[in-house]
Amino acid sequence: MPRRLTRLFLVLSLAGAVALPMTAQIALSQSQTGMSPSIITAAQLESAGYDGGDLPSGRSALTAKVQVLLDRSGTSPGVIDGFKGGMSQSAIMAFERRSGLPMDGIMDPHVWNLLQSFAHQPITMDYTITPEDAQDLVASIPSDYAEKAKMSSQGYTSIAEKLGERFHMDEKFIAVLNPGVVLEPGATIKVTNPASDARGQVTRIIVDKATRRVAAYDAKGRMIVDYPATIGSDATPSPSGSHHVVTVALNPNYTYNPARNFKQGDNDKALIVPPGPNGPVGSVWIDLSKPSYGIHGTATPSRLFHNQSHGCVRLTNWDARELAGMVKAGVTTVEFLPTGMTIAEATGLRPAAPVTTSEPLDQAASAPISEAQSASPTPANAAATEVLDFPDPAAESLNGRVIENTSEAEADALAEPSVADPLSDALSGALPDGFVVPPLDEQQ
């Protein structure tokens, strides 16, 4: 080809690439570099299957599907984003613990087969954005508390953020499932189909600082839910010992008082930050008997395993609200485990024999011994921990007991009588007495 024609061909090729939609440009770039496509379809989530080994690195339809199933099991993966990361690994480990499997946080046939108990509904669903979804949004959330205090609300900043919390998704993952779709009233989009809120009465909450998990139990010692969390920091660790829930504030104001708590920037006087999901304590505050400490939501759910706190326990807003509906003032205890102790040890569970087979198991053979019978506080717990980074200057401690807009009656109204654990129901009677997990074949 003559040189002038070659140059013209290159110019036209570049012009064509620029004219492509952004998603197409991304796909083209990734195919050239060998990276996996950034777009995952709802159909891929529905059809994703497991053929052995750990979850693939990066983002995948399989990981997103596993996250949805974990969410439905009451073992929260935090945000559903399709990425294999620390929160998903910790959720698999927590699921293994409640299922009586050795805890390594690695996907295997045992975990996959047990998760199928929660696959009776589609993984995704259609949702049509309503006019209400576009209401009460704010342009942005400033970091300075004095600027926050001037606002009328710490509300959602976009429709994507609002829907992300409703469907337990990272807002960027909404864009992944709906490439090129403008999020506006009338648009129908694909979203994940997570669990509805768990119900029951939580009498015991265990906070595990090492694996950054918070497990909640009913009066019979049955685990109801298990969440990922940010739990203190090296500079301001969470409290130790046992405390109890004092009250619950839904959609609370935040009282900033540098004379009693911490000092942010040049702010040297008390401020009242208005309520909202993007407030310093999110949309829920569960007050503890330890002064100025609590369990609360967060404005950055995807950062739970990276941010630090000033001693309090951060959950996603949706997990915090679910938990708030099940605790009871003066009844629910909150235990902060000492260093080196795991939730399995705190609940008196026995270690399970190691299982390393990668062969698929049938449903009967893969069913676990109940959590009340067996679990494994193995050294693999360390695999779920990461070095905390990106310190967050926004502290969680409220000004003593001053909590505005407290609605304990509303929180109590959400609580319902304890219901059966879905995992226990699904697996009841699945194992014969004395069942032992089959040993690894030498040839595998």
What's a quick, concise take on this entry?
The protein is an alpha+beta fold and 444 residues long. Helix content is 26%, strand content 13%.
Labels describing this entry:
single chain; alpha+beta; L,D-transpeptidase catalytic domain-like; nine-stranded mixed β-sheet; two-stranded antiparallel sheet; 13 strands; globular; disordered N terminus
What does it look like?
The chain is an alpha+beta fold. The protein has a domain at 204-357 and 386-414: L,D-transpeptidase catalytic domain-like, CATH 2.40.440.10. It is built from 14 helices and 13 strands. It has helices spanning 3-19, 22-33, 42-47, 61-72, 86-99, 109-115, 145-149, 159-166, 171-177, 317-324, 343-346, 363-366, 408-414, 422-427; strands at residues 124-128, 188-192, 204-208, 213-217, 223-228, 230-231, 241-250, 254-256, 271-273, 284-288, 294-296, 313-314, 333-336. A 9-stranded mixed β-sheet has the order 5-4-3-13-7-10-11-12-6. A two-stranded antiparallel sheet has the order 1-2. The chain has a two-stranded antiparallel ribbon with strand order 8-9.
Write the layout of secondary structure elements.
Layout (H helix, E strand, L loop, with lengths): L2 H17 L2 H12 L8 H6 L13 H12 L13 H14 L9 H7 L8 E5 L16 H5 L9 H8 L4 H7 L10 E5 L11 E5 L4 E5 L5 E6 L1 E2 L9 E10 L3 E3 L14 E3 L10 E5 L5 E3 L16 E2 L2 H8 L8 E4 L6 H4 L16 H4 L41 H7 L7 H6 L17
Parallel strand pairs: 3-13, 11-12
Antiparallel strand pairs: 1-2, 3-4, 4-5, 6-12, 7-10, 7-13, 8-9, 10-11
